[in-house]
Amino acid sequence: MKTDNSKILFDRAMQVLVEGCSSASRGPLNYKPYPAYMREGKGARIWDVDGNEFIDWQLSFGCLPLGHAHPKIVEIVQEKVAGGTHFATALEVEVETAELMVSMLPHVDKVRFANTGTEACMTGVRMARGITGKRKVLKFEGHYHGWYDGLLVSSNPQYPTTLGHPNDPVRIPDSSGLTPGSWEDTLVCVWNDEDALERMLDAHGHDLACVVMEGVMSNMGVIPPKPGYLKRAQEMCRAHNVLFYLDETVTGFRVAPGGAAELYDLQPDIVTYGKALGQGFPVAAIAGPDHIMESIEYGKVLHYGSHNAPRLGLYAAKTMLEEMTRDDQAGFKKIAEIGEQMTTRLNQVAKDTGQNMRVQNVGSMFHPVFTDLDAITDYREFCATVDLKKYGTFSELMRNQGIFFSGNKILHNLSCTEHTQSDIDASITAAGKALEQMK
Ligand SMILES: Cc1ncc(COP(=O)(O)O)c(C=O)c1O
């Protein structure tokens, strides 16, 4: 693959951008020796500055349920941009988008728009503390909620010997620059284990404002919840008078119209959305029932933001929701079917080539991991058995054949409404070749 123009850009970028880009995940850490600089995208395809074409399964970390430059998104953004990009005043489209969201989310009465999942999660935790008057929050090993200090603990893969006893996981800060105070009140528990959660709630419930979790573990490949686990977790939280906070930054408007809450029949107290919601624009939201959401009224729990509810982003969000729900939720059904097909066929290719690659999915979210286990059910199994280097090689061999699989070894791949059957077939053929080559 010719990458001369990317190389030139990388050399320039290294003079002015840290790691040649704007997030470590996009740079040479995951794309060696330098990333392909992208020029444009259309549907499920992207093109780099050397003219190389890729079928995109990374889709901006899940921000593009309709793929790139969807005609309806282009049309609405072109129509509206001439009327101004952002007002920081109340907007009609803000009301319309919120109405649409609330109509899709039975557990939600009100929403408040933000820009990123990180901000939304930071606000969710502050709300929980404000409402309950309690200090501590409980998160889970391997769950990522953005890079806010208070939740930036035990989110990365680690050597299994550093994790401590599962009854009392070692809390591992994910960054320098965190004061001990910033995560002093953040407890960490193993996920997908009812007994572990019960023990933590018994010990700390009186001090706990909320339990926050992803409905599907989606920053450690894709690890689905065990049957009944989430519902039981919600019940246990209610029994201990602790708010149940579901972070749907990834799963929201992706795994079902109502997200993981719909898929697993949950009524979370606090929910956060991001990624898919903005269809490529930075739009996030905090949502919940009235008695929770009233906590961010002025004078109670503070939530601000100059860029909240950007006009163009909201038009994109509204249009995405309309498109995905049209014809009896056809968009949601389509991305789930594509994800299922990719998962089944990649697993078959792995079997045929004798490779220990396992693909796990929840609907449109799927991820290949190299492990000798039949399935990965929790973070500790992931840390102990998954060969991340092998995934790195596999995804690189895929990209060399024009199939863009996430270079980030722990972040999943996804489908969008624009992937075609021939995109799937080409990707499966490429996977077969990559796995043969790796033998
Ligand atoms: C579950 C979850 N919550 C929150 C975030 C943070 O979102 P953002 O990157 O928009 O700040 C992420 C990002 O990957 C996420 O996966």
TrEMBL record:
Alphabetized InterPro entries for the sequence: Aminotrans_3, PyrdxlP-dep_Trfase, PyrdxlP-dep_Trfase_major, PyrdxlP-dep_Trfase_small
Known cofactor(s): pyridoxal 5'-phosphate
Domain of life: Bacteria
Presence of keyword Transcription regulation: no
Pfam families given in the database record: Aminotran_3 (PF00202)
Keywords carried by this UniProt record: Pyridoxal phosphate
Gene Ontology molecular function, alphabetical: pyridoxal phosphate binding; transaminase activity
Family note: Belongs to the class-III pyridoxal-phosphate-dependent aminotransferase family.
Protein name according to UniProt: Glutamate-1-semialdehyde 2,1-aminomutase
Annotated organism of origin: Shimia gijangensis
Lineage of origin: Bacteria, Pseudomonadati, Pseudomonadota, Alphaproteobacteria, Rhodobacterales
